[in-house]
Amino acid sequence: MIGQHEAGRRGRVVDLRLYGLLDTGVSGWDGTRLAAMAAEAVRGGCTLLQYREKSIADARAALARIRAIHAALAGSGVPLLVNDRVDLALAAGVEGVHLGQGDLHPADARRLLGPDAIVGLTLKTGAQADELYRLPVDYACIGGVFATTSKDNPDPPVGLDGLARIVFRGRLARGPGFPLGAIAGIDASNAAAVIEAGADGIAVISSLFAGESVEGRARDLRFRVDSALAARGVTA
Fold first, then answer.
1. Of 15, 77, 168, 182, which residue is the least packed, with the fewest Cβ within 10 Å?
2. Alpha helices, DSSP H, located in 73-183
3. Are 62 and 88 in contact (CB under 8 A)?
């Protein structure tokens, strides 16, 4: 199935259909609230979660929040990743990390985390997608696809055409089964178009966590993603 990559070294799969990013600047700073929101998102159909705090001033407080979220996910089968910080991922005992282009190299993260961890990577260009063949990562997210309010937008969005081109090059580099998601500015109005452009799933922040009814938002987004995948001939 497209979008669930069987990593030979782990025998696990990474399901990107609905990837929720718990950004502390968007979702709020209280660890209990973040944990509750994570649980709601999973009940609504989230398949992967990430803790993202772009400027960590208090590593101990961040670690406590990560542990609270991880505990809330116990038994769900949904992995929790930490953005950027391999040290916090290790300390919290979560399933892995997501890295940007300026973070620790994926090979170094793999050495630290071991063969069973999930390591994800952000891609912004086709040239970066070309390098996937030599990187020990389990999935990649392409973006930003659209402009977003959850972070600065120093580079212009790649748009749907750019997303399709980068997906094509990523498939050439790692094969048709390698999971490639899309991120930035994605919501209920454009989720289907993102899947139609070739992505295996969507990574969302504000459209899932900025407001009430997280579970309901997750159900709606998951329905749109699943429907678009089915129209593309992809089955769960």
1. 77
2. 86-92, 106-113, 126-130, 159-174
3. yes
